[in-house]
Design a protein that fits this description.
By secondary structure, this protein is α+β, with helices and mostly antiparallel strands. The chain has a single domain, classed as GTP cyclohydrolase I, C-terminal domain/NADPH-dependent 7-cyano-7-deazaguanine reductase, N-terminal domain (GTP Cyclohydrolase I, domain 2, 2-Layer Sandwich). Helix content is 25%, strand content 29%. The chain contains 4 helices and 4 strands. A 4-stranded antiparallel β-sheet has the order 1-2-3-4, with helices on one face.
Amino acid sequence: MTETKIHLTGVRAYGYVGLLPEEQVLGQWFTVDAQLTLDWFAAATSDDIADTYDYRTAIAAIHHHIQTGKYKLIERLAGAIAAELFTEPRLTHLQIKIVKQPPIPDFQGAVAVELEGDRTTFAAPLPQVSPTAKKKSKPSTPTVPA
């Protein structure tokens, strides 16, 4: 196989993905970088969009999942985007990075999740979590001796 990597950088969309209530109600901006790997030979010789992966489709999928997804974790958002992108049969490998600036007090930085895999990684549908099976996790509170 002759390998091509299509790089999508700085794909931005506004969405309501996050664990914090503010993220679910107020929303925030997300920035996505993706690297799509496929065989380039046919497109390089034909100059026909039908012989490659039309990256406009990937951009639309990224926008759609950020704008309409109701996920608590950006890992889940990344997995949902990856699963949809792999519906393109020519895509063989994917690397996706999602960045956000969460509304955490005294934190001015960003949080990013990066996911990478091939078609077999995302062959099975991602499991759905039933509302009754959800567990609430609390961050551990360190104990300070008196």
